[in-house]
Each structure stands twice: as C-alpha cells, then as structure tokens.
Amino acid sequence: MINEIIIMGRIVNELEPHLTGENMVLKFNIAVNNNDVAEFFSVECWNKVALNVIDYAQKGTLILVKGRLKQDRFKGTDGKNKSMIKIKAKYITVLSQRPKEANEPEELNQKEIQITKLKQEVEIKETETKNKLDKEYTSTINNLKIEIEKLKGELSKKDAENKLKVEETTTKKDKEIQELTSKLDIKTKEYELKEKNVKEKYESKLKDKDEQIAYYKE
User: Fold this and answer.
1) What's the CA gap between 207 and 195, in Å, rounded?
2) What tens digit of pLDDT does each residue of 146-196 get?
3) Distance between CA atoms of 147 and 161, rounded to whole angstroms?
4) 26 with 88: CB under 8 angstroms?
5) What is the mean pLDDT of the chain?
C-alpha cells in the first residue's frame, strides 16, 4: 500500500522543538493555498530534518514537505476516542523566507539560544549513548574473550586426557603383546623339549632294535 504525500505551504506558527528521550521532535502547522482557500495541515519531523527546519526556516517560511500520513488516536477531554491526521515528514526543503521585521533580532537570539541549547542536549545524549554502547561492546568483547580462553582450557584438558588414554591404551596393548610373546616362547620351548624327548625315545628304541637284530644274526 502506497502512503506518500508531497505538499507545499507556509509555516504558520513559531517553531518550538522538544526533546523526547534522546531524539529531537518538531511539530508545526503549514497553510496550503488551494484555489485562494487556506487549508491547514499538521507536520511532524525528527532529528536532522527538524534541525534543518530550525536552522533555515521560521514562521512564514515557504517549505516543501515530503512524507507520509500518520493517524494519531487519543482520548479527548470529554473521554471520547478521537483521532488526528498529520504528516510525518521524511524530507523538508526550505523554498523561501519572509522578510524579517524590525523587532525580530531579539526574538531570533532567544530562539537561537534555545536551539543551541537543544542541539547541545542532543549532542550530550548522543555522546552518552555512544559511550554506553562502547562500554557494552567492550564488556561483551571481554566476556567473549574469557569464554574463548575457558573453552581453550577445556579443549587442552580434553586433549591431554585423550592423549593420556591413548598412552594408557598403548601401554596396555604393549603389555598384552609382551605377555603373549612370553607365553609363545614358553610354549615353543615346551614343544621343542617334547620333540627332543620323543626323538630321543625313538632313537633309543631304534638302537635297541638294531642290537636285537645284530644278536640274532650272530
């Protein structure tokens, strides 16, 4: 849905900016000439747009407003629900200024003092916000560094434990191999001894047979 409006008119009231939290808001009315009939519209702008209007415009200045329509809902003094349509400005172009009157310098000085004060307050708020964000960022980074170091320590511990387990497993396997080798050596010796005994018995029997054969031959 398209919600965009471009309108040209003159500012009809004194510009009085206000601070809302950390933001500057400026609300004023403009008169638009529609076939020699004046139509009035409420305009709202914020921060840089508001500062631009304050710096270069005043009551009677012709401006071009580009923005969107916004409906504000509220309760009236009679307790009934009411609404008001206003223009929330995204861009404002200053087209001309009305001639200054003789009694304006003092009023303008007061306005300039008020505007300067508001600008300073905005700058202070911005600085405080930036410092707060920097502090939060630094705190977050430090916490992350602590977490990383903690994770590194846990990882090193796990690596050491795994290495120890590998060494223990290797040692256990080596011990089992040594035991099996030892058992094999014992079995081999037992086999060789048995083989020797069998061979000796066989040779002894063979010798007895040869002696018997020789005896009968005689």
Assistant:
1) 18
2) 888 888 888 888 888 888 888 888 888 888 888 888 888 888 888 788 888
3) 21
4) no
5) 82
Give 66-122 pLDDT, tens digit per residue: 999 999 888 888 888 988 899 999 999 999 765 555 455 555 556 666 666 677 677
Reduced to 3 states (helix: H, G, I; strand: E, B; else coil), residue 167 is helix
**Strand 81-96 with 37-46, pairing:** parallel
* Amino acid at residue number 44: E
pTM of the model: 0.48
Q: What is the pLDDT of residue 105?
A: 53
Quote the radius of gyration of the chain (alpha carbons, Å): 51
Closest CA to 29 of 1, 2, 48, 53: 53
Running DSSP on this structure, what letter comes out for residue 59?
Answer: T
Cα→Cα distances 145→26, 91, 140, 148, 191, Å: 44, 44, 9, 5, 68
**Is-contact 3 11, C-beta < 8 A?**
no
> b vs e for 138-150, b when ≥16 Cβ sit within 10 Å of the residue's Cβ?
eeeeeeeeeeeee
Q: Report the amino acid identity of residue 68.
A: R
Annotate 84-102 with b (16+ C-beta within 10 A) or e (fewer).
eebbbbeebebeeeeeeee
